[in-house]
């Protein structure tokens, strides 16, 4: 555990430490949560996969927005970063209709105030990517809101800036992923302000925990898509008839293995770097 660091908080996945006034250490555990419940079983190496992928994207997206990374530690799961004042809004970008976006569309024909064409099917590609803000509710669930509500929370000019940054990040990452056979269906960014009031990208970015990645060759709208994320675990838990309240079920070895394999596959496809090589020297993702 970190030297003189002071433990600040435990998220569902990350432990937060203060290194000093300006610097935080974000340590990604191997915990996995489904339906906002942390499961008792861990997925080996998951924290390293998330941290490595985030560091990969942070290193390549500085031309779009500055980010909070100061250093990637050699354990592969710890990120030293600048302490930000996080915006109270999660900035979600959707290029495809899935998850809560699909549910909202079914109910209302729109998503977070974006009116969409009628007749779209589940997993349909949207005419253009949309930003769908959400607030972090105390329960752990995220509540979708519209742009007016987001602007009320952070200020209109700041919200416009956040939207533009998020769309540019999405376009950049979706193009990168597409060239590697992966659809970036949607993704969530967390932005904050540094001491100068500059908008900075924080948290994790473009990982399977914050994004839906779909294998492009299996893409078939009109149904849910197979994906490189927790879907495998979620399907297992749902098949048990679990009521989605804590405590979550233990997950058997084969489901753990299958989930780990999906996370590793996403890492290797997106980065073009072998996960073994990352574990041997995490700095390879920064190059
Ligand atoms: N640079 C930063 N400065 C301050 N806070 C940050 C920074 N980067 C990330 N965070 C915060 O650290 C936490 C990361 O922990 P984690 O992802 O495990 O939490 P979570 O389960 O998503 O949400 P919660 O914190 O509500 O439990 C988030 O609350 C995130 O907003
Ligand atoms: Mg988080």
Q: Which key terms come to mind for this protein?
A:
binds magnesium ion; 31% helix; binds adenosine-5'-triphosphate; 7 helices; seven-stranded antiparallel β-sheet; alpha+beta; single chain; 287 residues; five-stranded antiparallel β-sheet; globular
Helical region count? 7
N-to-C span = 27 Å
Written as H for each helix and E for each strand, in order along the chain, the element string is EEEEEHEEEEHEEEEHHEEEHHH
Q: Compute the gyration radius: what is it?
A: 18 Å
Enumerate the distinct ligands: adenosine-5'-triphosphate, magnesium ion
Characterize the largest beta sheet: strand count, sense, and whether it forms a barrel: 7 strands, antiparallel
Mean pLDDT across all residues, rounded?
A: 96
User: Which percent range fits the helix content?
Assistant: 25-40%
Q: Which strand-content bin applies to the residues?
A: 25-35%
**Outline:** globular
| Strand count | 16
Unreliably modeled segments? none
Kindly name the structural category: alpha+beta
Give a verbal description of the structure:
By secondary structure, this protein is an alpha+beta fold. Helices cover 31% and strands 27% of the residues. A hairpin with a 5-residue loop joins strand 14 and strand 15. Helix 3 crosses helix 4. The model has no long low-confidence stretch (mean pLDDT 96).
């Amino acid at each position: 555990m970190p030297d003189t660091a002071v433990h600040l908080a435990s998220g569902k996945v990350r432990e937060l430490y203060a290194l000093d006034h300006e610097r935080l250490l974000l340590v990604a555990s191997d915990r996995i949560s489904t339906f906002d419940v942390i499961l008792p079983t861990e997925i080996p190496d998951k924290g390293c996969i998330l941290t490595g992928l985030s560091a990969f994207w942070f290193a390549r997206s500085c031309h779009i927005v500055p980010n909070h990374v100061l250093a990637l530690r050699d354990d592969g799961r710890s990120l030293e970063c600048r302490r930000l004042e996080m915006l109270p809004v999660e900035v979600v970008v959707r290029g495809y209709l899935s998850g809560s976006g699909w549910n909202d569309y079914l109910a209302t024909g729109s998503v977070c105030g974006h009116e969409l064409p009628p007749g779209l099917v589940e997993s349909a590609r949207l005419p253009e990517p949309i930003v769908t803000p959400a607030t972090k509710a105390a329960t752990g669930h995220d509540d979708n809101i519209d742009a007016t509500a987001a602007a009320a929370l952070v200020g209109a000019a700041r919200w416009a800036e956040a939207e533009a940054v998020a769309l540019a990040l999405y376009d950049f990452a979706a193009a990168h992923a597409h060239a590697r056979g992966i659809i970036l269906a949607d993704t969530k960014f967390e932005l904050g302000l540094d001491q100068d009031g500059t908008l900075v990208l924080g948290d994790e970015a473009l990982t399977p925990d914050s994004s839906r990645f779909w294998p492009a060759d299996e893409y078939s709208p009109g149904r849910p898509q197979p994906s490189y994320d927790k879907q495998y675990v979620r399907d297992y838990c749902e098949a048990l008839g679990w009521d989605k309240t804590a405590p979550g079920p233990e997950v058997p070895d084969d489901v753990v293995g299958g989930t780990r394999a999906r996370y590793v596959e996403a890492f290797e496809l997106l980065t073009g770097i072998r996960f073994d090589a990352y574990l041997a020297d995490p700095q390879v993702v920064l190059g």
